[in-house]
Write a structure and sequence with these properties.
Helix content is 66%, strand content 0%. The longest helix is centred in the last third of the chain and has 19 residues. The protein has 158 residues and is mainly α. It has a single domain, classed as Tetracycline Repressor, domain 2. Helix 1 packs antiparallel against helix 2, helix 3 runs antiparallel to helix 4 and helix 6 packs antiparallel against helix 8. This is Transcriptional regulator TetR C-terminal Proteobacteria type domain-containing protein. Pfam families: TetR_C_7.
Length: 158
Amino acid sequence: MNRTNASLFSILATFPDKPGNLEDDLSAFAVRLTKNCLCNQDGQFLRKLVQSEGERYPQLFEGWRKHGPGKIGTALAALFARLSYGGVLQMEDFDLAARQFLALVNADLQMITLFGESPTDEQLESAAHNAVRTFLRAYSTPATPLSAATPLLKATVG
């Protein structure tokens, strides 16, 4: 858990607190976060351990929740608060926004990582872009334009 948290906090230090292009900068941050925390060996091991033994050892699950995901949510909430107070984002509940951001970032990767597989760089980037576009539709200010070059949904013909 200590190695995972060290990696996590080094990634959090790269959060775009003064973004040039909010969508691109948050997407790159999300890729770093998932690649180095969710998809690395320590992160995969901890999730597998908690999934397989959490019911039998509830203190294991509680310790992981409190010292792992609980820390990232609190830290992200503070970072989103800075962007909100700076006028870059518009939100009232920073903790909720942090949880939603993490849920969106992880949504496309859950089935891939559930059985210990590692997503490709392309899958990480796609998941991050999808998550950030959705997140910004909820929280961007009128002065924060969304990228018009990347549609939210891609139509398929088949």
